[in-house]
Amino acid sequence: MPSFAEIANRIYRKVIGADNTLQTDSHGITTTLNGSVAVATVESILSEAAACGEAFPPEKGSIAWRNEQQRQQVNLFGKPLLNIESGSARGALSAAMGLAMAGKRASCSLWSSDLANAQDLVRRAVGHHLPLVIHATSKALPLNGESHEDSDEGIHQLRDSGAFILYAQNVQEAIDFTLIARAVAEKALVPGIVIMDGHETASSPQQIELPSPELIENLVGNYADSIPVAEPAQQLVFGEERRRVPNWYSLDNPTLQGSYRDPYSFGLGTISHTKFFGALVQEILQDTFTGFAQLTGRNYSAVTYLGKKRAKKIIVCYGSITGRCNNISNQLKEIAVASIHLLAPFPAKTLHETLQNCSEAIILDRSESLLDEKPQLYREVLPLLSHNCKANSVIYGVGGLPVHDSDLVAAFKAPHHDDAIRVGVTPLPNNSNPKQQVLTDLLERNYPELGELGITGGRENNSHPSTPSNSQHTPMAVRHLGSDQDSGYQNLSRFWDQTGVLYRDGMESNQGIDPFAAVGHIPPLTSTFITTGCNTLPLLNPEQCTGCGKCWSNCPDSAIVAVSLSPTQLLEAGIKMGGADALRPHLSKLAKQMSLTINSGEAKELLEKSWDELMTHSPLPDERRTSAEDAISQLASNIGELPLIHTEPLFHHPERLKAQSGELLSIVVNPDSCKGCGICAELCKTESDTPALTMQEQSDEELDHAYKSWRVWEQLPDSSSTTIIDYGARPEISTLNATMLSRHASMAMAGGDSAEPGSGEKIAIRQLLGITEYHQQPMVHRLLENIDETHQKLLSGIREKLAVASHADDLSSLAEGLESVSSRQIDLSALAEKTANIESDGVNAEELKEWINLAERIRTERERIASGEHSLGRSRYSMVFAPGTAAAWAGTFPSNPFQVPVVIGSAGEVGALASGLIEGQLEQATEIHRILRKAKLLLKNGSLAERKATEQLVWGDLSRDELQQSPPLLLIGNDTTLGAESAGELIWLLNSRLPIKVIVLAEMDLGFSDTHSDARSELALTALSQRNAYVAQSSIAAPDHLNRVVRESLRHSGPALLRIYVPSPQRHGFNPEATIRQAELALNGHATPLFSYNPTADGVFGTRISLEGNPTESRSIAEWAISEERFSGQFTSLSNGQKSKAVELEEWLKLDTRAQNNKIPVFEEHAINPGFASRLGQLLEQWQMLQELAGIVTPFTEQVKREAESNISADHQREIDELNREHQEELQTLRNRLESEITQRITDQLVALTDSQSDPDQ
Question: Which of 665, 678, 881, 910 could in theory staple to 887 by disulfide, Cβ–Cβ 3.0 to 4.6 A?
């Protein structure tokens, strides 16, 4: 069903027409549209082209233009609408500049923060005199984080760019300023920027009047028309006439633009631009305002005065806040409003005339000066006021802070103040929470002026406390984090007590101003305190569970976890929970009995049944039995809620090999993290006709049971490494499922975030982090073993040297040094200081000090690596997120689901950020190896020069094993932020030696807005060309393959790129429980074929490519596409008239282009859009290419086979011919010999006969 905006657009098109014949109606039509759609609609009528760039969140103006281009295809002047897609905001602006240079009327829509980042390009557009109109929606610049809300810091940065800037206060003004800016830009040859607020204009539906054809013709005109040139400067450049939009980049008039200039030409050119072009903008603007008013009756000027004439108190403002200020001024009567429409060039003269009679000016600005200066608008207005006029600076809405009318009224009524006041902010709120109040009191003592920085209107707090989590339970994972002594920025307890609870209870508006807010860091694992609050939970039936592991490995929210323990381990854990020590003497017998009692269910049932069986066969005396049964009751209370499952891989199979070697599986659900996506239950259905997990509506009883089971699981030991290895070795068990049986792997990412239910991104990242954690832990243990061994050797050497000191002449120096230490336990650093003055022939004091210092440094490093300040130890890896949907849920304040360092980067530069971070991270890792190498040289009596040389060690000097022990950095983003926007940096990273593992979360959007190839879907293939990086493409539907390629990438000491397909239920259009199924459909259709390339493998390029893991039997790729709502528009029901031309998609793809044009690709009685079908074909071509690269299927294989067969056949024929020839020769030889023998024999007979006849005696 079309939206209201689409209907309005169609009506508008019908009214004004879409051909060269303009309607003569002098009035536009009235409708309701939001600002983004309205401006895009008008631009699609006026302009020929727009440049759109990828942004997060997506910029709505660009989306609206794309929709209009697809819907209408031509503008008012009959020209086709052109859309240029770019991977970044800077790219979009550059494309728009190129269009304008080539003589096209072009526009570009960007966030103001992105436009500020492209200020150099805006200046280039100014210098090239491009009549370009840029539309910007207000968005805050990043500071200690990102915000998608309105703020004007970026806009003020643009005011010196040389472009003129119009700021619209509502949707109608945004439309009108689009026409005005277009007219001014094309007359002055200076680019213009039209700005509107985000929430109150760009996204706000408002009643508007769209421009009529007559207005467009009279005010703007056709961009290809020739117009008379009035300005003398332009006459010199162009002559008497010029094209309305000059074609600066012309094949007919070739010139060189953008040259490198010497100081004279550059400086004089800048001054000349100001004089002959920039200086005329204000005059042209005023003329255009006047002409627009004559045509429409709507009066605009650089500054608009609203309210009582000659008012003594005037509010100076701009943007959408103007309407609210005007309403307030009407209520207060004594206040007027001066609304600024033109921010650049700043209308100083007009504003001076407006303010010359006022006694107080209230200057509103939506930007915060970070160096405690007055805001920029205040600084520009202040010199315009008379010396009797007081100026008050009021800052509102920074970063999207809510602004209430009552707050504005309070600010307007406030007495004169020297410092700026912030509207709607209570800097030092009164808190009922004692820990929050402690911070407030401390700040008030040290910064007494803080209380005067903000003002509110005495309104009641509209925030209502939310229902707290039913758990009322501090997660075990975070109980050891933080302490009262450590209240720094990284302390979880401090953060949650002062900030987190406000968000949990819906009271975030009660926050005040404090240094922690300025820093903006979120301590680890804050998301574990957050309750997602779903209505359904998976219910486990232990008797039906097979222990396949799919549920706990594919849960996106870490809400389902498992543990495998022997009965002995389980009993010991339960006893440690308290109250069951009397059971210790019977623990081994009870554990043995539990192994014999097959009864999947709650632990309480198994305990009681096993105990009864044990007492039946081995009864205890009454007095001992009473205490033991009391202990059994307590043990059942401790662990009784835990479900225990006897499974084939973990219990029955080991028991058959060895008695009492089986382990009990337990699967529990965290109600605080579960979002009820149903993936676990859906996967369980595929395993059995009677699934062990089913989704059930929450009941108080089931919820309480789930909480109790989870709390028991938190206190249990982890599954052993041996168990995980043996479990993963079974053919029916995925190695990834076995990995995620580890507590450290399964909880590498906590739940409690804001991601959608069933998120494919979360499944992939959770599995990725679980594998990484499991892989890195042995590396850390190996490093710690090396550290411990070296440390012990150093300590032994120190003892030996101190023993020598007992014979030293200067033993008194050592004694005095030791006596001065107050503690009975002396540490090595103190010992080094106290032994510095020893002098003896037997002891070198400096050498002893070196030994002691090294030992102390090693001990300190060991402590940091093993435990650290918060018992987490040194992180085994680190993470950087590029902007995108994953970053949105991973880094939304105040939630942090990670326990490693994480940075959310900026688009386009995130690769460079990661390279800087990893260098610092590698330096930290290198330091411990410097110390170890130096210590080993000391132990081997290495020379002083050798020991000093270790201080120059850099990470490039480390061995492969030492690099393996260094934490890798995971750079996570999507195809757009890492492929399009950061392509150059990505290629550089992949050719470096840096251990950065790039994780590309692919959604397979495929650029279906056109039929051209989309480089984003070929990112992994592009990475293959770098040859020295590990590259793989995987899927959450292939857990074994994903596990293998992640481990291989981590073992590779250099860079790696992994592209993982991650379906999204909300964005792609399917039910949350079907996420894994969608990934399977894409895999089976070869939309996302699996492959890996290991540059260190034996052989040549092609032999290093592995296609292992791909399905042996493929299905139609259309089966995947048709199952997702996002592609529904590409499939239509096949009509009777189309059936004669219908061809199955796979057959259609084999046809040549001419044949394809005469046929219709179909799938299951659905016709497929030919352009879409071609894109599906391009995906299949990638699969074909991979097979060719790997040497499995190539056009050369058959050719080589035919040539080989031909060669073999020819050789065989030659052999046969040779044998025939030899045979004939042998026959001929034999024949000749026989003939010779016969002839000789006959001759002999004839001779004998002749002789006998001639003898007379015979």
Answer: 881
User: Residue 870 has which token pair?
Assistant: 């918060």
Q: Which two tokens stand for residue 408?
A: 């504005």
Task: Give the predicted TM-score (pTM) of the model.
Answer: 0.86
Long-range own/partner contacts, residues 1094-1100 (CB < 8 A, 24 or more apart): 1094/1030, 1094/1048, 1094/1052, 1095/1027, 1095/1028, 1095/1029, 1095/1030, 1095/1052, 1095/1054, 1096/1052
Lowest model confidence (mean pLDDT) among 127-136, 272-281, 597-606: 597-606
- Report the distance separating Cα 476 and Cα 470, nearest Å: 16
For residue 502, give its domain range.
Answer: 434-521
Q: 650: closest CA among 581, 592, 726, 554?
A: 726
Question: How far is 912 from 905, CA to CA, in rounded Å?
Answer: 10
For helices 60-72 and 35-46, angle between their N-to-C axes, nearest 10 degrees: 50
Q: How confident is the model at residue 256, as a pLDDT?
A: 92
Residue 29 domain flag: yes
Residue 711 pLDDT > 60, yes or no? yes
Which tens digit of pLDDT belongs to each residue from 474-501? Answer: 666 556 564 545 678 888 888 888 888 8
Dihedrals phi, psi of 645, to nearest 5 degrees:
-125, 130
- Domain end marker among 715, 747, 779: 747
Degrees (nearest 5) of the Cα angle 960, 961, 966?
Answer: 95
Angle 1039-1051/760-805 helices, nearest 10 degrees? 40
- The total number of residues written for the chain in this structure: 1258
Considering the domain architecture, whether residues 106 and 224 belong to the same structural domain is answered as yes
Question: Between the ranges 48-52, 922-926, 1041-1045, where is the mean pLDDT highest?
Answer: 1041-1045
Q: In what order do the strands lie in the sheet with 360-365?
A: 303-307, 335-340, 313-317, 360-365, 390-395, 421-423, 454-455
- Nearest-angstrom CA–CA distance, 361 and 384: 11
Residues 470 and 415 in one domain: no
Q: How many domains does the chain have?
A: 6
pLDDT, residue 798, reads 86
10 Å Cβ neighbour count for 384? 21
Classify residue 563: in a domain, yes or no: yes
Is residue 1166 one of the residues assigned to a domain? yes
CB 38 within 8 A of CB 208: yes
List the CATH number of the domain containing 82: 3.40.50.970
- CB of 1083 closer than 8 Å to CB of 1183: no
Residue type, 896: N
Please state, in angstroms and rounded to a whole number, the distance separating the CA atoms of residues 485 and 482: 8
CA dist 517 → 56, 140, 496, 498, 520 (Å):
24, 16, 13, 11, 5
Radius of gyration of the chain (CA): 40
Going from the C-alpha of 158 to that of each of 166, 168, 278, 321, 1147, the distances in angstroms are 12, 16, 15, 20, 55
Compute the distance between CA of residue 1234 and CA of residue 88 in angstroms, rounded to an integer.
Answer: 96
Tokens describing residue 1108: 């292992």
Helix (H) or strand (E) holding 29: none
**Mode of pairing for the β-strands spanning 454-455 and 421-423:** parallel
| The two three-digit tokens of residue 815, written as one number | 């004694």
How far is the C-alpha of 1248 from the C-alpha of 1117, rounded, in Å? 98
Q: Residue 1077 has which token pair? A: 């199924």
Tell me phi and psi for residue 503, to 5 degrees: -70, -40
Phi, psi torsion values for 370, nearest 5 degrees: -75, -10
pLDDT of 1012 above 70 = no
Mean predicted confidence (pLDDT) in 316-329? 93
Q: Give the CA distances from residue 792 to residues 268, 937, 960, in Å, rounded to whole numbers and listed in that order.
A: 74, 15, 25
Alpha-carbon separation of residue 971 from 432, 525, 880 (angstroms): 42, 20, 5
Nearest to 727 by CA among 716, 718, 717, 737: 737
Cβ contacts of residue 336 below 8 Å, gap of 6+?
305, 306, 307, 308, 309, 311, 313, 314, 315, 329, 358
Kindly give the pairing relationship between strand 536-540 and strand 560-565. Answer: unpaired
